[in-house]
C-alpha cells in the first residue's frame, strides 16, 4: 500500500511520506476512520520551517490540529502559538506554553475570553475593528495590539474571505484609536491565503502590506511586529517548494519590502502538520448509477462532515492509496457516508481509483494532518468524530 493513485506526482513525494504512519496503519485494524500522525514528522517540519524563517518566530496556528501531543512537542521545540479562543489558550497553557509566546489572533473575541487571556498572561491581541479595540482596552488594559489587514489573495488554493481584516483605508484610524485607548499599536498582520503553493505568490500581498506598513511609520507609529500569518503549503498532488526553501524565499521577499522589522511572527498551521498525518478509511460501497455510466461512485466511511470539509469546492485534492494500486484505474465520484447530499467529495473533477476497488477495502488518505480532526462533526448521522492517534 505504498503507491499513490491518480495524478502524476513528483518522485520527491515518496521521501516525504511518513513511513511510520504507513507502517502503523498497515499493522492495525480501525473500527472507524482514524487519523494517524507521526509526531517526529511534525518536529522535522518545525525544524525545516524554522531554518528557512530565520529570525521570524513561529506561532503554530492551533486550529490546524490541536492534539495535545502535537502542542506538547511544539512547546518543547520552542514554538509560540496562535490561539483563537479561550479553549485553545487553555490547551496550549496546559501543555506548558509560556503565555508570553501565545498570541490571541482571532479578530472576533468575546469580552470574557479577552479577560481570561489577559488574566493568564497573554499580552498580544489581534483586532480589525473599533469595537474590538474597545473590548481589548476594557478587558486587557495596556495590551499590545496588531491590526489585521485584508489582502487580495487570488493565488491561494484555499483563499480566505473578507471575514477577517480591515481595508487599508481603515488601518491608520485603528492604530490611532489603539493608542487613544491606552493600548500599544504594536504591528500589522495579514494572511496570504491558505495553501499558497509557491513563495512567489506572496509578492502581491507583501506589496500591499508593505505600503500600509511604511505609511504607518511615516505617520509616527513605531510598529514593532509584522505577523505574516500562515499559508505555508502541503503536498496535495501539485508540486510545492520544500519548506526551508519556501520559507527562505518568503523572508527574502519580506526583507526587500520591509527592511529591518524588529519582530516577525509566522503562523503556519497546514504547513506544520498536514504531511505528518494520514487517515485510514474504508470503502463502504462501489456502484454505478446506470449500466451506461462511465463513472463509478465510491462511498467511503469518511466524508465532508467527518473530517474532509476542505473538499468543499473540490479545493483541496487529497491523495489516496489502496492495496490495488498499480492496477488499471477508472474515474470515480467520491462521496462520504452520511445521508446529506452535500456529502460528495469530488464530482466535478472525478478521481482515478483502481478498478478492483471493493466494499470493505482499506483506503489511505495522505497528508491529512491539518484541518481534518478539527472539522469533524460530533455524531452527525451517528458517525463518530474523527479519532486521532499520535505515534
Ligand atoms: C488559520 C490561521 C493560520 C494558519 O493558516 P495556514 O494556512 O493553515 O497556515 C494562521 N493565522 C491565522 C490568524 C489563522 O486564522
From TrEMBL:
It catalyses: L-ornithine + H(+) = putrescine + CO2. Keywords: Lyase, Pyridoxal phosphate. Its EC number is 4.1.1.17. Gene3D superfamilies: Alanine racemase, Lyase, Ornithine Decarboxylase, Chain A, domain 1. Pathway: Amine and polyamine biosynthesis; putrescine biosynthesis via L-ornithine pathway; putrescine from L-ornithine: step 1/1. Coiled coil: none annotated. Residues 41-274 form the Orn/DAP/Arg decarboxylase 2 N-terminal domain. It comes from the Bacteria. Its cofactor is pyridoxal 5'-phosphate. Belongs to the Orn/Lys/Arg decarboxylase class-II family. This is ornithine decarboxylase. The lineage of its organism: Bacteria, Pseudomonadati, Pseudomonadota, Alphaproteobacteria, Rhodobacterales.
